[in-house]
Structure prediction request, 374 residues.
Amino acid sequence: MAELSTRFDVSTLLRPEMRDLEEYTPIQPFEVLSRRLGIPAEQLVKLDANENPYGPVPAVIEALAEYNFYHIYPDPEQSELRDALSEFVGVPAAHILTSHGADEMLDYLCRAFLRPGDAIVDCPPTFGMYSFDAGLVGAEVIEVWRRPDYSVDVDAIEALFSQEADTVGRIKLLFLTSPNNPTGTWLSDEELQRLLALPAMVVLDEAYVEFADLPSRADWVLAHENLVVLRTFSKAAGIAGLRLGYGICPAWLMTELWKFKQPYNVNVAAAVAGLASLRHVDQIYAVVEKIKAERERLLEALGDVPYLRPYPSQSNFILCDVIGREGKRVKEALERKGILVRHYRKPRLENCIRISVGRPEQTDRLLAALHELA
Ligand SMILES: *Cc1c(COP(=O)(O)O)cnc(C)c1O
Prediction:
């Protein structure tokens, strides 16, 4: 055996791009954290992953308990769910593809459009999955950094596309997020129009759009052949753990993605939960309104914490600059009290924490803890 394994290095069979990938650093599951901190899981104030603190609407739990066909494979076309989504987003079902979270759509798009040597345009600071998925395919990530107010630098992106033809030809996908994670900033109609005029496929990630004051651009795909809009049930609908997302795509791209999609990518539990959610959209929006009201209260209260400078947000989280002390220390001190927030220490987020909007009593615990640290 020993002799056999020295004859050649099996790992050389892997795609060469794999070697350039960074190793994945998993987050601590919150049950593990609860044991480590000695605080029961239900007492943790989990404000680190933009989950919905209210969970799904009650009808979801009932529908999951009552469903009797878990032993049957799912409908690969997800017709019932896509019809319900069509009502919800106001775009024909033929333009909607459901997925195992919006994350799976990102993976499909990267694998459908990118080969090694191709490129994406990414606008950091933003969600990490765009560069992650592009990296898996061996594509280059061209970063166009956001402006100081975290708006997208549309001029710089346009300038990128006025370079030599061989650079421009390699750029396939342009990733935009509105509202953006982790900054909470919004992309205007005018900015989006300008970017759609460029010769690239524009992927507009609207994971948080239900929390914004401005409407979704889902129906723009009917007028723009180079636009995909991504949405999810993870944030507003409160079923992040069940993994259900969807892409709203132009007709030509749907034809291609149907060839590409795993037939059973959406499991039956996710579909049941999605359908039950869509029958109670009014309740989801009632929860969204509660979260938005709490966001405004949290924003104002964070402004009174002497070492934090919060940014206004169109989403269910608030980004804060930490002033005159280490953000990491703040995160750790909160963690010891059972309050979890996200900490950043990277370019343009040099010393920041991001706080998801929780229930009012969770906000109260957070604020008390922040003032104790002052
Ligand atoms: C949370 C998040 C997603 C992921 O959505 P899933 O449906 O849970 O995969 C996508 N985009 C952004 C910007 C997010 O923050």
Remarks:
- The chain has a mean pLDDT of 95.
- The first strand starts at residue 45 and ends at 46.
